[in-house]
Amino acid sequence: MIVKEIYARTILSKSKVFDYAINPYVGCQHACSYCYARFMRRFTGHREPWGEFVDVKINAPDLLRQEIDRKPPGRVWISGVCDPYQPLETRYEVTRKCLEILVEHDWPVTIETKSALVLRDKKLLEGVSRIEVGLTVTTGDEGVRQLFEPNAPSISERIRALEDLRLAGIRTYAMIAPMLPKAEELVAVLRSKVDYVLIDRMNYHYGDWVYRKYKLEDAMSDAFFFQRSKDLASAFEEQAISCRVLF
Known about the structure:
three-stranded mixed beta sheet, TIM Barrel, alpha/beta
């Protein structure tokens, strides 16, 4: 793993999903096979494969303190093209320091991660009404997870994190994206652990080789995504969990 400390020029970026995005890192140790953020590699100068380098924006908190006073308040997405709680966050705490500033200024925040490391900041997030935390969980089967995202935390770790956060009064959601085989098993395990669920399909082709290698081609068809999302949405609604399909 190549780790490089860098100085960013800006940190509050305009986002097409929310008002702003903060990406404390460039690159991600989870290295999920399907990750759309792989396109970032071409802008980094790195020759290493995706997942084998991470650039740490060590000046991100200082930049945020400057920019937050100059820009109109808006919802901040942490993060759009990296996992803000990948393992290096334990060492650098860039996400934590940015969160402290956002909470101090009472800005709304949406956190999205695959890591239970977010629980480290539970006390910081408690009682903050406009903060929500989402855990991306793509399948309910650990064997399937290992095929597509072997370096990411286990499904059970993510589910427990959602439960702990919600018990602490923090708004939570599950992001089933991309929807992988056996995602239907998530309906039972997410009961009472999330406020809502988002579902999306595989929209990119980075992970196609995994489907082919393990003869899962049927699970990457349009028919699979449309029917499975319809079934999942219906099952979540039966559990009184709000669900939105994003495609």
